[in-house]
Input
Amino acid sequence: MQLPGDPSNVTNDLVAAFPAHLAGDVKSVLAVMPEARLAPTMPFEVEVRGETVAIPSRIYNEEPGPDSERPAVTGTQQVILHCLYSRHSDGRVRQRHLEQIVASGEPWVVPFVVQLVGEYVLEIIEAIGRGLPGLAVPGSAQRRLYGEFIARNPAFFARTERRVVSYWSCYYRRTYGAFGTYPGNVLVEAFRAAVVEQVGARWPRHTPQPSGRG
Output
């Protein structure tokens, strides 16, 4: 864990989590967020519509209080705030904010959602499944959105697949004896169907077959 250093460095780290055209909005959001007790950690890079962003694995800022005297954020800035807090160190905070953005059609929201599928909180994975019903619908906007992102980020998706297998094996194998029934894998299969539809070709698999047991 790193203690916060130069505040401008922390700002730059979080601005880098979004496409460049959102930099002003991100800075407005950061202005309403309480100062972090620890610096953001372990950023991961993905491509969003041809632009590389670096999203922190965790942030440690407290949530803005309802009685905050700082100006409220609205519209796009509110979505940015929810995206950032979906990376919070507290799983309940992550879930609360994820539920506000999971149905968004913004391409820069997608990596925040996909990353959570490869994490360990089952309630968050289930919330993603509820929030993305269009993944099961051929030709839907959600399928196109996620299929395009995965096509641009094959290594990130492969890593997500492996993490899904790992967390299932570690925490959920007794509950979901068949890997194919684990909610994380259900989402991975839906993502794979989306990218296959997007590229019109088979896509590499880094998980067991859905019908197989571990």
